[in-house]
Design goal:
The protein is an alpha/beta fold. The chain folds into two domains: 334 residues, Zn peptidases (Aminopeptidase), CATH 3.40.630.10; 83 residues, Immunoglobulin-like. An eight-stranded mixed beta sheet has the order 1-2-4-3-5-8-6-7, with helices on both faces. A four-stranded mixed beta sheet has the order 15-12-11-17, with no helix packed on it. Strands 14-13-16 form a three-stranded antiparallel beta sheet, with no helix packed on it. The longest helix is centred in the last third of the chain and has 20 residues. The termini are far apart.
Length: 448
């Protein structure tokens, strides 16, 4: 009888040890709790009140147009900077554009509103960027005078950027975070191209870009689906940057689904679902939607990992429409169609992902998988990250048909032998610190 009870207790102990516990960094958990639906509503109400934010609209009127809207966002950033201990600086980054005979018909002073929260580790050159676009449009992108509320497209994304800046400016992160409200999106991603091209020219180490565009409404036109529990993340498959140089390796190793942006999308899914209750991240295997474009695209074209975050069900009656009522249908991007609880959760998905990245060590270096002989085990090895204090490493495993990583095995060593055939699985390695903050994963190169 005693032996029987002992077996039960041992079995129960093993069962308890086998349970998976979701460990949340209490610092990130607290930041997520501080996100306020009322704050988000306040930002959007103020942005809608500028009448229009068309990139071609007035820049001199203090109460109307893109100029007034830019000044408002700058004022908020500067207000948040007061609580940063001097680590956050804000400014309007401008460039002069000439008419392009497409969507710019006059000489234009384009301005992005930027806030930079400098990292605490001077040796850590990594940058993580969150963006939303400040401008909007009516039915005609050239209509610079008519009212255009732009509550969801894209005051929602700008509000998410502002709220993340408000909360994160009070904390310290090893890496630098850039918060940016770009202009010229509706005119052809002009502000994003300006920022991405300049970043590339300056060799900035931007490890991830979270672009937020149309993320605060819960219902669709035509199908009338209503849901505020799912959020889409778009990511490219084959890399737009230097595909010709890397196509052979991608093809040989079957890495069509493992580009930097796709890895970032997986990271957002895992991290956001860890910290945000009642929210499912739905990965979309496209860079963007049909007939549309987003501000992440200039970054992926420059070789950066970038994704687009957008609501699950879009309502096209409320995008790029003059405010009007026809056949019983209300058109226009009005604030009354917003779901601020949904926007709160979507903002939290951004903040959790940003904070986890910026607190984590940098990625492990020289990650390799040994292929010098046949076998049913896999040997991986790597070197320590360039920056950050490392507790250990997660070796990530998934089947070749798997959308997300299916196993994470911890090791404190710089190598591991796994009882999984390299022919049947994909692997990656990420560094992790004592707080549980993980770097982006690195897919191993071939080592011999």
């Amino acid at each position: 009888m005693k032996y029987f009870l002992a077996v039960i207790f041992v079995s129960a102990s093993l069962f308890c040890q086998a349970q998976t516990t979701i460990n949340r960094d209490p610092v990130i958990e607290q930041m997520v709790k501080e996100i306020s639906s009322d704050s988000l509503k306040g930002y959007i109400t103020s942005l809608v009140a500028f009448g229009t934010r068309n990139t071609l609209s007035t820049q001199t009127d203090p109460k109307r147009g893109i100029g007034a809207a830019r000044n408002y966002v700058l004022k908020q950033f500067n207000r948040f900077a007061l609580q940063s201990g001097g680590r956050m600086k804000a400014f309007i980054d401008t460039t002069t554009l000439q008419p392009d005979k497409k969507r710019v018909d006059t000489t234009l002073l384009l301005g992005n509103v930027v806030a930079i929260l400098t990292g605490t580790d001077t040796s850590d050159k990594r940058i993580f960027l969150i963006s939303g676009h400040l401008d909007n449009m009516r039915s005609s992108v050239m209509d610079r005078t008519g009212d255009a509320p732009g509550a969801n497209d894209d005051a929602s994304g700008t509000a998410a950027v502002l709220e993340c800046a408000r909360i994160m400016s009070k904390r310290s992160f090893s890496a630098t975070i850039i918060f940016i409200a770009v202009s010229g999106e509706e005119q052809g991603l002009l502000g994003a191209y300006f920022m991405a091209n300049k970043s590339k020219a300056q060799h900035l180490d931007i490890e991830a870009v979270l672009n937020n565009d149309i993320m605060g409404s819960n219902n669709s036109s035509e199908t009338n689906i209503i849901s505020n529990t799912r959020l889409r993340v778009f990511s490219e498959g084959l890399p737009a940057f230097e595909l010709d140089k890397n196509a052979k390796t991608i093809r040989q190793l079957g890495l069509e689904n493992d580009g930097k942006s796709r890895q970032l999308a997986r990271y957002v899914k895992e991290t956001a679902e860890r910290y945000v209750d009642n929210l499912e991240i739905v990965m979309i295997y496209r860079n963007d939607r049909f007939l549309r474009g987003g501000d992440h695209t200039p970054y992926v074209e420059n070789g950066y990992a970038a994704v687009r975050i957008t609501e699950m069900n879009e309502n096209y009656y409320h995008q790029h429409q003059d405010v009007r009522k026809e056949n019983g249908i209300q058109y226009g991007d009005l604030i009354e169609f917003m779901d601020f609880e949904y926007l709160r959760k979507n903002t939290a998905a951004n903040l959790a992902s940003l904070a986890n990245l910026a607190k984590a060590p940098s990625m492990p270096v020289d990650v390799k998988i040994d292929v010098k002989k046949l076998g049913n085990t896999s040997y991986l090895y790597w070197s320590v990250p360039k920056t950050g204090t490392v507790k250990g490493y997660y070796v990530m495993i998934r089947e070749t048909t798997g959308a997300t990583w299916q196993k994470k095995i911890f090791t404190a060593d710089l190598n591991i032998t796994l009882p999984y055939s390299k022919d049947n699985y994909f692997f990656a390695v990420q560094a992790v610190n004592a707080a549980g903050n993980e770097s982006l994963p690195v897919v191993p190169a071939v080592g011999r």
